[in-house]
Write a structure and sequence with these properties.
alpha/beta; six-stranded antiparallel β-sheet; 9 helices
């Protein structure tokens, strides 16, 4: 299952209808700062049913609409259409859904072009194994949020993400699966370290601690790691948790910037492992990540400031050399 097509119209910086096609493996969105790359991820999240303005990076509902400029009026309607496909085969079963909204707050949901209630829309998305898709997004500013929490708060956050009852704790089989996946991921990103999940309780409150054993038998807790080590550990932890959820894709918004050159290289093997089972749609400026892509999408801005898709191609090294600016 993967997200195959996205169509955006009137949403944030996209004044005109813009279509983009993603691949089942790794799709990279590239472009200069401020061209509207993150708005594509916002559009996908909104079309999946997200209404939280914070999660959509907005202060008011009006921020969702193209605001207009000297040559174009403000958008009075926004529409995002998503097409999912069960496999890479041309005749694979697919599903197209769309969400529209007008400035007066009226929403319209469709499934295969037919009107649907919000509840029907949610059920149809869930039937296509996207029940947890709104949870599997990482923003650049959120990379270290889990590792920066004290252990009791981290325990609560993990339970909330996974819909677990915090009073009952984390089941043993869940903990084992999470630990195995986290250990495998850290084997790529920090092969010199051993990582261990520790469930415990302090002052009557359950907690989740993570300890990292470094060469020389140095045992570090998360707050003792360097900035780059925290970013590596947090990314591995989040994607290990995502692996326990029901989502066909992960949306990653510039999650690598604080990693050093060594970790950039080791991340290639890590991303290949993750993308073998889950579609990755990534915004990045890093050449090492771009080189992994199955498809590349170049976003630029017109003179009036609106966003458009300048190029799209399946990975081709000759074409990639023409676009040295990420």
């Amino acid at each position: 299952m993967h997200l195959e097509d996205v169509s955006i119209e009137g949403f944030k910086s996209f004044s005109e209808e813009t279509d983009m096609r993603f691949q089942a493996g790794i799709s990279v969105i590239m472009g200069n700062n401020g061209v509207g790359k993150s708005n594509i991820l916002d559009a996908v999240v909104w079309a999946m049913g997200e209404d939280s303005l914070d999660r959509l990076r907005c202060y008011s509902p009006d921020d969702l609409f193209f605001g207009g400029n000297r040559t174009q009026p403000p958008a009075h309607r926004i529409k995002v259409r998503l097409t999912f496909r069960e496999s890479r085969e041309k005749d694979a079963v697919g599903m197209t859904v769309s969400r529209e909204m007008t400035r007066d707050g009226q929403n319209r949901f469709t499934i295969e072009g037919d009107d649907a209630t919000p509840e029907m829309y949610r059920r149809q998305l869930s039937a296509f194994h996207t029940k947890d898709a709104l949870k599997t997004i990482i923003r650049q500013e959120q990379i270290n949020d889990l590792v920066s929490m004290p252990p009791p708060r981290r325990f609560e956050a993990v339970c909330s993400l996974m819909d677990l009852d915090p009073t009952r704790g984390i089941p043993g089989d869940f903990q084992d699966q999470l630990a195995q996946r986290l250990t495998r991921y850290m084997g790529y990103l920090m092969p010199e370290a051993d990582i261990a999940l520790k469930l415990g309780a302090r002052n009557g409150a359950k907690d989740l601690d993570i300890q990292v054993a470094m060469p020389g038998d140095r045992r570090l807790r998360l707050h003792q790691l360097s900035g780059g080590q925290k970013a590596v550990t947090s990314l591995a932890l989040k994607l290990a948790l995502f692996g326990q959820l029901q989502s066909p894709f992960y949306l990653l918004d510039e999650v690598e910037p604080s990693l050093d050159y060594t970790h950039h290289k080791s991340m290639q093997a890590f991303l290949k492992d993750v993308s073998a089972r889950t579609q990755l749609i990534m915004i990045t400026h890093l050449r090492t990540t771009i080189e992994l892509a199955d498809s590349l999408h170049g976003v630029r801005t017109r003179p009036d400031g609106s966003s458009f898709m300048k190029f799209y191609f399946l990975m081709n090294k000759k074409l990639l050399r023409l676009y040295k600016c990420c």
